[in-house]
Design a protein that fits this description.
Elements (H helix, E strand, L loop, with lengths): L3 H6 L4 E6 L4 H8 L5 E5 L7 H11 L5 E5 L5 H10 L3 E4 L5 H11 L21 H11 L1 E6 L2 H5 L1 H5 L6 E4 L1 H7 L9 H17 L4 E4 L4 H10 L3 E4 L2 H22 L2
Parallel strand pairs: 1-2, 1-8, 2-3, 3-4, 4-5, 5-6, 7-8
Helix pairs in contact: 2-3
Length: about 260
């Protein structure tokens, strides 16, 4: 485990990177930078569990928490992700109290949850089973995504569920559920985000946000607003930005010589 949970409990900001490219080297590169956590996105990418297990090996020893955005709030997917060695889960589209309770339950062993015990990689193939089992429920990170208008309407019920370590507001899906897809600056979308943010602060649950563009001023604004669990960009975006920056400078110099 890294420092993410401790930072969130102290009210500090935990910064993360978003891994879309299904290769261990990419996650290893991200883990070598000054992020607190790395998220492997298994909802919208080609990541499979064999790749995830190799990513867990690549990130091990970096001191960074490895989180997995699940394809859905699924018992088997959560169990496999944690068995591979992930430190926590990000559960998409949590819209009701019952779904929030299930998100916590799939991440924790009985009596607090329903996760099945195994002798998989997470326990060093059984060699560390006892210690892992004893400490897992307190250490595992459970992040719920609030990304639908239904979650706005049910936010107080959702956030009253024990065991949620942070939330993650999904602005794109939220806007789509309001029939305003991609209109992230629309007053109604911003008002819905504000309801979620205020509820998180009221319930003492760290609010989260994914800032996709390479935009440090926006990060600063979100922190000033009260967000504490923040994803910075995408690995794919970092590549695009790097290519464009390099090519732009080179092309300028070529043109200046003409």
């Amino acid at each position: 485990m890294g420092t993410t949970k401790a930072k969130l409990m102290r009210g500090e900001v935990a910064l993360g990177a978003w891994n879309m490219i299904p290769h261990p080297n990419v996650a290893e590169i991200l883990a070598g930078e000054d992020f607190d956590w790395i998220c492997v996105d298994m909802e919208h990418t080609a990541h499979d569990f064999q790749t995830l297990e190799n990513i867990c090996r690549a990130v091990k020893g970096s001191g960074k928490d490895l989180l997995v955005r699940l394809p859905s709030c699924d018992d088997v997917a959560a169990k496999k992700a944690l068995d591979c060695g992930a430190d926590g889960i990000i559960v998409p589209c949590v819209n009701t109290r019952e779904q929030a309770e299930h998100a916590v339950a799939v991440a924790k062993y009985p009596p607090e949850g329903i996760r099945g015990a195994s002798l998989a990689r997470c326990t060093d193939f059984g060699r560390n089973f006892s210690d892992y089992f004893k400490t897992h429920n307190d250490g595992v990170l459970v992040i719920v995504m609030l990304e639908h208008i239904d979650s706005v309407q049910n936010v107080d019920d959702i956030l009253s569920v024990p065991g949620i370590d942070a939330t993650f507001i999904g602005p794109y899906d939220l806007s789509a559920s309001m029939e305003l897809a991609g209109q992230l600056d629309h007053p109604e979308v911003l008002a819905a985000q504000k309801i979620l943010l205020d509820a998180c602060i009221r319930h003492g649950v760290p609010p989260g946000f994914h800032i996709v563009p390479n935009d440090p001023p926006q990060v600063a604004r979100r922190i000033d607003m009260g967000f504490r669990f923040i994803a910075l960009g995408l690995d794919t975006g970092f590549i695009i930005d790097g290519c464009r920056t390099m090519l732009s400078e080179v092309r300028k110099k070529q043109k200046s010589k003409l």
